[in-house]
Amino acid sequence: MINRNYKNDFLISFFSSKLTVNVIVILTVFVISSNMKAITQNDGVALTPPLGWNSWNKFGCDVNEELIQEIADAMVSTGMKEAGYEYIVIDDCWQVDRDQQGNIIADPERFP
Fold first, then answer.
1. CA 45 to CA 50: how far, in whole Å?
2. Among residues 25, 43, 49, 67, which is most buried (max CB within 10 A)?
């Protein structure tokens, strides 16, 4: 007695059919082309990821106004600004407290 796997026989005959191959190709083209509008849409949103520099990775809490100004100047002079870098994040240690309205107060010694 021959042990046949009818499920495999069905799959082989199904995917070897010219009609099935044509349907798969047409569906693939449809899915790709329907997503092309979203891919090629140029509405100015997120054309590049947000590009910037963060103080924490290099300096931790050892930051001050002079250092941040030097970093900003270096970003301009090395072409990073022109390449799309626009953010400088002073991560931590620039603040000392909050005022009565809850606004953060910059350290007047580090950032006069």
1. 11
2. 67
